[in-house]
Amino acid sequence: xxxxxxxxxxxxxxxxxxxxxxxxxxxxxxxxxxxxxxxxxxxxxxxxxxxxxxxxxxxxxxxxxxxxxxxxxxxxxxxxxxxxxxxxxxxxxxxxxxxxxxxxxxxxxxxxxxxxxxxxxxxxxxxxxxxxxxxxxxxxxxxxxxxxxxxxxxxxxxxxxxxxxxxxxxxxxxxxxxxxxxxxxxxxxxxxxxxxxxxxxxxxxxxxxxxxxxxxxxxxxxxxxxxxxxxxxxxxxxxxxxxxxxxxxxxxxxxxxxxxxxxxxxxxxxxxxxxxxxxxxxxxxxxxxxxxxxxxxxxxxxxxxxxxxxxxxxxxxxxxxxxxxxxxxxxxxxxxxxxxxxxxxxxxxxxxxxxxxxxxxxxxxxxxxxxxxxxxxxxxxxxxxxxxxxxxxxxxxxxxxxxxxxxxxxxxxxxxxxxxxxxxxxxxxxxxxxxxxxxxxxxxxxxxxxxxxxxxxxxxxxxxxx
Amino acid sequence: xxxxxxxxxxxxxxxxxxxxxxxxxxxxxxxxxxxxxxxxxxxxxxxxxxxxxxxxxxxxxxxxxxxxxxxxxxxxxxxxxxxxxxxxxxxxxxxxxxxxxxxxxxxxxxxxxxxxxxxxxxxxxxxxxxxxxxxxxxxxxxxxxxxxxxxxxxxxxxxxxxxxxxxxxxxxxxxxxxxxxxxxxxxxxxxxxxxxxxxxxxxxxxxxxxxxxxxxxxxxxxxxxxxxxxxxxxxxxxxxxxxxxxxxxxxxxxxxxxxxxxxxxxxxxxxxxxxxxxxxxxxxxxxxxxxxxxxxxxxxxxxxxxxxxxxxxxxxxxxxxxxxxxxxxxxxxxxxxxxxxxxxxxxxxxxxxxxxxxxxxxxxxxxxxxxxxxxxxxxxxxxxxxxxxxxxxxxxxxxxxxxxxxxxxxxxxxxxxxxxxxxxxxxxxxxxxxxxxxxxxxxxxxxxxxxxxxxxxxxxxxxxxx
Lengths: 466, 466
Ligand SMILES: [Co+2]
Ligand SMILES: [Co+2]
Hints:
Low-confidence stretches of chain A: 461-466
Oligomer: homodimer
Largest interface: A-B, 47 and 47 residues
Number of domains of chain A: 2
Radius of gyration of chain A: 22 Å
Helix content of chain A: 40-55%
Order of helices and strands of chain A: EHHHEHHEHEHEHEHEHEHHHHHHHHHHHH
Bound molecules: cobalt (II) ion
Strand content of chain A: 5-15%
């Protein structure tokens, strides 16, 4: 009865967090029969950055990946991560594109849609949730967790209630930045359980080293499903270790029932796979608690550090880390997740590098201040808004309300190249990339970016020692 | 009142677990003023394998290290790990050597002595505990945690009661193999708290990914002190992350009171230090739950794998992993820790490689079966004993009762080389090593083993790519 269920994210978030989303379908398929036998509640296997990485780097058709995984995992729920009205792209789409994307994802094998919005603006979630329900699949409404003066437990409880009213089947707490402490997790899960009747699903990244403790408190307070990752792709920027969660709960009233021996076989497989992608590993894969002090997620820090390095200004890193919370406050405390993490981070770099705050303002910040991403969680700094966009009118409606149906237009634009509705949707996500991608795919000339051979490096390494 | 105290192990167990005990004193001293300001309950900084590594690889005088650390950490309790009657060597010493070693350790700066025995044979702990109390220092009696049909909670409670009766000031639970689950930890701490009035100190390695959850349950049940390691030397085979423990308890009734900002400065320092020692890193530093299934600690697996590799028999690894629990059972279920882990592991390899169990028996196993390491936790297999040592008499007394005072003899043996009582003790620990070491030290010709330069490797690496 009290059994805790487990979602494993190795096929999506695990490699997205640790090796820049580079795992190829060919490295997933050989282990699928074992994954399929585990008895997970679901396998997160698609969406997030995988669609982009497939098209951009791996030169794989993401829809083909989904079909292959569906076939190889006949007994498992396949789960995807969907950015609400942004789908898997980087802008808001019209509702007909959202409906078509959900339809095709379901047709090709997705069972569970985890749907979030960077602003927690429920208007950006509503159409995708309704589309999922319309095709008879599982809609998981998601709370993007963050901390700020407005992000308290009643705020999140209210979100959950609204998501329930939209027809969601489960509620996910998404702690992408690894900010949740065990104590807050316990309180939050308890409050959500009291307020809604839906099962609660916890997704807490391990970066700050708190996630397994938070899971424990979540379980104590009645969480239904927890996310983990098989050990060889777990911890650090990824999720806590599935095997450890299973072992921790074994023999208790919350026993997951999963076979730890089978999980170890799967882990051994992925440990070998991970070696192939060594070039994408970060230098340090341990615990990093800096986010708890400066609120800047680990992934954002490494992006910023690359950005500053290119400008020869790595010495300004501390100034940028100090500026980020100020920019976030100016923008009304958005959670820092795609795309708001990039919006806030890039503006903070500009503010530091130009030496005058908001002297130069990115288009993304302008659009944000005009309401094009949705409603900010708290009040936006009106001085900053004046500086950035003057008296331009701020939209109050749902951003997608300004968009007219666009599937027909997209179909026309990519006519001749697209062989299916799926191809049209690929084009919708990444227009420039997709044209070349579809051309090459049709011509049979797709080639993945090459992987560096560590053997070669190692042999030259030992050579240099003597 | 309920405040939880923290011991940080970065100066001892952290680098022992992750970079083969290679951290040099020069890399410790620059950060000591910050470490000293944290307000830890203690800093584990000496003993364990550090003494050996100083003499063997770093070519540093371990007593000089201790003096320097003492001076650099004037406000901190310095803690050492002591293997009972084995001290820091690999045999049993006579009581006068034990007393002298404890005296000199105290004189040079140790405040807290964590004392354990691989067999949990209390007779092997008594003299060192009494010596610590005689010099007015803190004696921490230690339970070497393991699992077996005889190692249940009443067994450990009984050990703790005896340790209390010996005059110990605290009781440590030492989970070197990372076997503790959160549930058992909670039960064990609760039972110990009910049975003894001493504060309980938890040392649980992170290998299996359970330690931070176990700490949480320990705290729930009244543990007084927990061991962590600063993040840049934490997790994997090391201890769980200090900053995460501090963050998890912050604002709760168990708040450690430590400043996470200061801890992050310390972590940033050690992150750079760790890079210097890259050649000693293991390939995989993540969570490994195999110990929960086969009871073989992670460190033992890597040693065995090296042993088998040298014999060109890496394909026998699974057979060896299956044989280890059988050998352990034959020997009456000793916990697997120095030196029993080596004793059991080497015999298991022999049993597999010779193709006939106990056809060849190591001297260590013979001595073990003759009682020279102390009393086995459970009954020894009498067939195995007959095979190994025939009808030879098994000693029933404390092994060290068979030893006569030896300090005088040691002094004579190393006369001319030893400049102090400390030097005599160094010689007592590692007679062969120490002679050369003292000679070279006296001549001023000590040279540490060289560190490989990663820069050189990296430049040749990028060269090989093009
Ligand atoms: Co995630
Ligand atoms: Co240890």
